[in-house]
Amino acid sequence: MRTFITVLATAAASAVVYDVNAQSLENGKKLLSYERYSSAHTTLEPLAASSPEANYYFGLVQLGEGKADAAKATFAKFPKDFYNLAGTARVLFTEGKGDEAMKILNEIVDGAKKKDWEKYKVAADAITYSKTATQVDQAVAWYRIAKEKKNDNAQLLIAMGDALMRQNTGASNGEATQVFDEAIKLGGANSLAYSRKGLLWLNARQYKEALENYSLAKDADKENPLPYGDLAEVYYRSGKYELAKQNIEEYLKLSDKTVQDQLRYGNILYLTQNYKEASQKYQDLINKGEGEKTPTLYRGLAYAQYQDNNYVDALASFNKYRGLVKDAKEFTYEDDLYYAYVNNAMASQDTANKAKYAAVAEEYYVKALEKNTEEDKTALYRKIADGYKETKNWTKVSDWYTKLVTAYPEASPLDYFNSGYYAYFAKDFAKAKTRLEAFNTKYPQETIGYFWLARTAAAQDSEAKLGTAVEPFKTWLSKPSKEGDTRKKEDEIFAYVYLSLYYYNSNDGKTAVDYAKKTIALDANNETANQIIKYFKAKGIN
């Protein structure tokens, strides 16, 4: 009898262990899906040795932590298990060995039996969640087969939705919404499904719908940090910086507070223009020795220091970042742009080394332009011009607007105007005249070009004796304003004063007094106009 009880007790204990392990595996998978890699690591590592499936998910955690070599070794512990083979394929994708990865994945699905849906899902997952994998259409096809075999698995539907989002077409995004809704009806992973719907709307810049779904995601599972992180971005994009900050703080509370989590927190602080706080967060992590392992901390610090006008430290942080990154291909065009910004700022601050910094700035502005892959780069040209505006280098501002309209003849009217306008402030009057005349020819209905063409002529005739600006000012004054346009009073005063001075110098008293009176009508205390009226009144001209 005693033996029988012992056997029963042992069997009961085994069942408890099995249940605990199963629960732990599911909890580990959920933590992984919430990108809580540190917690998932702690949960899954003890299970990995005895369970091929747990080992697979533990390897995925290691990939999420950026430990590709460790993940590779983990997957190799179960070399014949299809889960771990798919894990090995993910590592191969990270190594740039896409053909080898696809060979493994094709072998996995080729070995699938009639009701075997998981092999299709795990093979498709390897593509969907590998950033460098390009075979997303194949992943979607495999998900469709898996869904035919198993249509009541929420995780499968969410993964399929993720792949459809990667296709990023109107049709695929519409289908993604449908499969996320199917996952929500099934239940069991609603927080994740609502988060994905929120992301779908966020990418579509439909912020109201994004907010609604992220709110539902928060309610579905209070432990999920993902909605808070994405909500921070929604509010940032909507210009609601305080709400963005509040949500990223909630995200940090629920996350594992890894370096990547804190880096994300710092990035939102930066984006919401809390530059000092962002700098402090990056610096705190660097002081803890994380900078060498995570070079992007120096990148974030450099950006924040630049925005805080701390150019010397920004340059030092940029140089540290650039020294730590071994592959120059990792530098984005934004990195080159901001490195140019900092050097440009240094050129205006360190006059002894101005030429050196200016040359580096120009070099990296060009690199940013070359590296940018957008078909329409007009926005980047403007950003480069903005960099030179910050340092009041009007010659360069004009040059870059001229380059913009040369590269993109259908650029905006403002781009054409700026090409000449900033040449005026650079005192390059010949260029200003040429560019403004081109602007007026292309956009004759825009009266502002005529005014600045007249100003350019007036700048070359500061004493109003030559009359070079007479006809340009008269042309501008005769132009009807566009509907909704109102001429600036100070611009009209400038024109009338120049004209009255010119006719005063030409001894044409009647015309000089007429323009002086027009000036007085706008500015009763204008000294020049009053003196001209007084002068000619004494001569009997009113």
Give an account of the 3D structure.
Helix content is 75%, strand content 0%. The protein is mostly helical and 542 residues long. The longest helix has 32 residues, at 2-33.
Mean pLDDT: 92
Rough outline: elongated
SS field, number of helical segments: 29
Secondary-structure element string = HHHHHHHHHHHHHHHHHHHHHHHHHHHHH
List keywords for this structure.
Serine Threonine Protein Phosphatase 5, Tetratricopeptide repeat; 542 residues; 29 helices; mainly alpha; disordered N terminus; elongated
Strands, helices and their partners?
Layout: H1 2-33, H2 37-48, H3 52-64, H4 68-75, H5 82-94, H6 98-110, H7 118-128, H8 136-149, H9 154-167, H10 170-186, H11 190-203, H12 207-220, H13 226-237, H14 241-254, H15 259-271, H16 275-287, H17 296-307, H18 311-324, H19 333-349, H20 354-371, H21 378-390, H22 394-407, H23 413-425, H24 429-442, H25 448-459, H26 470-478, H27 489-505, H28 509-522, H29 527-537
Helix pairs in contact: 1-2, 1-3, 2-3, 3-4, 3-5, 4-5, 5-6, 5-7, 6-7, 7-8, 7-9, 8-9, 9-10, 9-11, 10-11, 11-12, 11-13, 12-13, 13-14, 13-15, 14-15, 15-16, 15-17, 16-17, 17-18, 18-19, 19-20, 19-21, 21-22, 22-23, 23-24, 24-25, 25-26, 26-27, 27-28, 28-29
Short description:
This protein is mostly helical. The protein contains 29 helices and no strands.
